[in-house]
């Protein structure tokens, strides 16, 4: 997806027949299970199925050109892998041009193999980038806990702590600070969720 062009519901002219766009989007949606590099763009383009425009169609064809040019991309599971779980979380604050909701992203690796990922619009509007990042960190912490339970059920030992990387210093400070501040009262539930796992 072209990083410089932010698509939204009113960008471009409405398509006369939206069925071609819907067919174009439906096929690569299945590829997101093995090609996580297109899950973000497919999530963005799927929002406009009811009233697609010409710029949405151009973005969809750009994605298809990318897929055609990179047939060997996908998930690789090495045979000699160490079962150490690590995750990365990031948020794009107010990324949605239409409703100003943040887009959260996280992924988890078991050794060098990517095993879980998500790119999703947040349920609520975040009032700061710290709040958006912290809510993403909370969702990633819950996913890490679920993955630990899954490894335990599969009888795969995981003796080390899960490492979760976040690039926002204020979100990390909120997670590490045991004193509850007035500035973070609106994210109280997520604070307790992450602190409990810490």
List keywords for this structure.
single chain; 198 residues; alpha+beta; Nucleotidyltransferase, domain 5; 2 domains; four-stranded mixed β-sheet; 6 helices; 39% helix
Could you explain how this protein is built, in words?
The chain is an alpha+beta fold and 198 residues long. The protein has 2 domains: 1-74, no CATH class; 85-197, Ribonuclease H-like superfamily/Ribonuclease H (Nucleotidyltransferase, domain 5, 2-Layer Sandwich). It has helices at residues 19-29, 39-46, 54-69, 129-153, 169-176, 188-197; strands at 85-92, 103-110, 113-121, 163-166. It has a 4-stranded mixed β-sheet. The longest helix has 25 residues, at 129-153. The two termini are 36 Å apart.
Q: Output the structural class.
A: alpha+beta
First-to-last CA distance? 36 Å
CATH superfamily of the largest domain: Ribonuclease H-like superfamily/Ribonuclease H
CATH architecture group name of the largest domain: 2-Layer Sandwich
CATH class group of the largest domain: Alpha Beta
Instruction: Count up the helices.
Output: 6
Indicate the mean pLDDT: 80
SSE order: HHHEEEHEHH
- The domain tally reads 2
Q: Main sheet: which strands, in order across? A: 3-2-1-4
């Amino acid at each position: 997806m072209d990083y410089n062009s932010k698509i939204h519901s009113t960008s471009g002219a409405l398509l006369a027949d939206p069925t071609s766009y819907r067919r174009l989007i439906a096929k690569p949606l299945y590829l997101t299970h093995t090609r996580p590099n297109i899950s973000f763009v497919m999530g963005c383009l799927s929002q406009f199925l009811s009233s697609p425009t010409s710029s949405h169609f151009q973005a969809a064809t750009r994605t298809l050109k990318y897929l055609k040019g990179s047939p060997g991309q996908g998930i690789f599971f090495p045979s000699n892998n160490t079962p150490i779980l690590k995750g990365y979380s990031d948020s794009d604050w107010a990324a949605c041009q239409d409703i100003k909701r943040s887009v959260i992203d996280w992924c988890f690796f078991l050794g060098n193999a990517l095993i879980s990922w998500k790119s999703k619009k947040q349920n609520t509007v975040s009032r700061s980038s710290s709040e958006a990042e912290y809510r993403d960190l909370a969702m990633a912490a819950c996913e890490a806990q679920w993955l630990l339970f899954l490894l335990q059920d599969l009888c795969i030992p995981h003796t080390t702590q899960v490492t979760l990387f976040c690039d926002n210093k204020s979100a990390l400070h909120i997670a590490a600070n045991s004193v509850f501040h007035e500035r973070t009262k609106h994210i109280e539930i997520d604070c307790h969720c992450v602190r409990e796992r810490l």
